[in-house]
Design brief:
CATH topology: DNA polymerase, domain 1
CATH class: Mainly Alpha
Radius of gyration: 11 Å
CATH superfamily: Flavinator of succinate dehydrogenase
Number of domains: 1
Shape: globular
Oligomer: single chain
Number of helices: 5
Number of strands: 0
Helix content: 55-70%
Length: 78
């Protein structure tokens, strides 16, 4: 599977709302995102759990420092 194909697969989350959020980010921000933001996004979709991502993005929980940049960007697309 190509790197892009793998990433598209990782965007498919367990929550429809999170799927929409991730797809919006990927379509609108990913192409122009700087490398450090892309790396953080890849770590997020690979390592973080869906309920945590949702809570951080919606402001229901404190965002861990290692995901602060990407969660800030994801909030733009909620």
């Amino acid at each position: 599977m190509s790197t892009e194909g793998r990433l598209r697969w990782l965007l498919r989350r367990g929550m429809k709302e999170l799927d929409v959020l991730m797809e919006r980010y990927y379509a609108q921000r990913w192409p122009s995102a700087p490398p450090d933001e892309k790396a953080e996004f890849l770590r997020l979709v690979t390592l973080a759990e869906d309920p945590d991502i949702w809570a951080w993005t919606m402001g229901y929980a404190d965002v861990p420092a290692e995901y602060a940049l990407i969660i800030e960007q994801l909030r733009v697309y909620r």
